[in-house]
Amino acid sequence: MTRLLYLGMLTACVLVFSGCTTSVTVEGTIPTPLVAKIPAKVGIYYSEDFKKFRHEETIRQNGNWEIDMGDQNLLFFRNLMKALFDEANEVGEPSGNMTGVDGLDGILVPEIVKYGFLTPNVSGLKFYSASIHYRLTLYDTNGQKLGEWGVVGYGKSETTLFGKNESLSEATMLAIRDGGARIAIETKSLPVIKSWLEEI
Amino acid sequence: MNKQTKTASILLSILVLAGCASTRVEERRQASTGMGDHEAIVLLGRASYSDRETETSFTECVASALAKGDRPLRLVTQKEFKDQLYPWFEPRTAPTSSKDLGKLFAQPGVQQRILDTHVRYLAWISGDTITTDSGGSFSCTISSFGGGCFGVSYWEEDASYEASIWDVENMTTSGQISADANGTSYLAGVILPIPIIARPGNAACKALANQLREFLQGDPIAADIAADEV
C-alpha cells in the first residue's frame, strides 16, 4: 500500500512539474542547396555548443520552454557546407598551431549567437515565430581571423489547437532554412569572401 | 406531421441555411493552358513576414480537391518541391513574378531540377480567412443540480483567396483565379449547445479547386468535340 502511495505521489509530482515545461525537439527535412560551389577547400569547426544547441526560457504567460535543436541544426549545416564549397571537412578549433589543415584554404566557424521565439499569447498573432542569429567567422590556416558576418534566419508557423510543440518546432526549422538560404545565396558575394578567394 | 414538428423543421432549416457560406469566383485568363498526362502542378502558399499569410491547411485543401475526382491533376507537394529547389522557393528568395523565372532558371541546375519534377504550372495561393464581425452572449454553467448552456453568439468570417498561375515552360503568367466566400456561424444554447457553423474557408477551397481544374484542363466536353474535329 505504501509503495503504491509513493508511486502515486511520484506520478502526480511528475505530471504537475512536467505540465509547466514545454519541451520542443526540432525536426524536419534536410534539403541539399542547389547553388554553384565556391571554389575553395575549407575546414569547418562546429563547437559543442553549436552541435547541441538548447534554449531555455520562461515566459510569464506560457511557463517554461526548452527548445532542443537536436542534430537538426548540425546536419543542416553539414549538408549546406558540402553543397556550398568544393570541399568541406570538419576540423578542430582554429588556433596558432593547427593540425590536419594541410591543403585547406581556410577555416569557417558557424555559431549561434542568439535564439528567440514568440508565442501567439505574446505576439498577439496567429503564429509561433522563431529567429536564429548566426555568426560565421573565417580564419586562415594559421588561425588568423580574416573576417566575420552575421545572418539572421526567421520562421513562423500556424498555431494548432493541441500542437504548440509542433508549431514551434516547425517555426524553428523554417528559421534554420531561412538562415541557410541566405548563407547559400549571399556568401559568395560577401567582400570578405571575395578578397579571400582572390588570395588563395 | 403535427404543427410542432413543422415549426421545428422550419426553424432548423432557417438555422442551417443561415450557416451556409456564399461564394464568388472570378477568373482572368492571360494565356491558353493545357496539361499533358506526365505534367504536374505545384501549389505554393505565398508566405511573407507580415502578420497574415495563407494557411497551410487551405493550400492542402485545394491540393487534396485537385487530386480527387473524375479528372485528377498530377500534383507535386509543396514540401517536396521546396526541398528539391532549396534555397530558391523560400519565403525570402521565392520569385515574386513570372518575369523572375528567367533569372531563376539562370541559376545552375534549377531549370533541370524543375524539368525532372515534371512541374508545368506553379499556382501561388495568397489570401486568408478573417473574422469580420462577432457578437452575442453565450455561456455554459455546471453545478451539482445539473447544467446547461444559454444565449446566442455569432461570428462572421470572410475568406478571400487568389491563385496566380505561372506557366513554367513559357515562363509567363497564365492567369489568376480569385475565390471569395463569407458566412456567419452561430452558437446557440438551449440547455445543449447547438453549433451552426458556416465554413467559408472550405467553400472558397472547393470553388478555387474546381475553377483551377477547369482553367488548366478546360471543359471536358468541349475538349472532346475539339479532339473529334481534329
Features:
heterodimer, A: 200 residues, alpha/beta, Double Stranded RNA Binding Domain, five-stranded mixed sheet, 6 helices, elongated, B: 230 residues, Rossmann fold, six-stranded mixed sheet, 33% helix
What does this structure look like?
The complex is a heterodimer of chains A (200) and B (230). Chain A is α/β, with parallel strands linked by helices and 200 residues long. Chain A is built from six helices and eight strands, in the order H-E-E-H-E-E-H-E-E-H-E-E-H-H. Chain A has one domain: Lipoprotein like domain (Double Stranded RNA Binding Domain, 2-Layer Sandwich), CATH 3.30.160.150. Helices cover 35% and strands 35% of the residues of chain A. In chain A, a hairpin with a 5-residue loop joins strand 7 and strand 8. Chain A starts with a helix and ends with a helix. Chain B has a six-stranded mixed beta sheet with strand order 1-6-5-4-2-3. Chain B is elongated. The longest helix of chain B is centred in the C-terminal third of the chain and has 18 residues. Chain B has a domain of 153 residues: Rossmann fold, CATH 3.40.50. Chain B is built from seven helices and six strands. In chain B, helix 2 links the parallel strand 2 and strand 3. Classes of the chains: A alpha/beta (200), B alpha/beta (230).
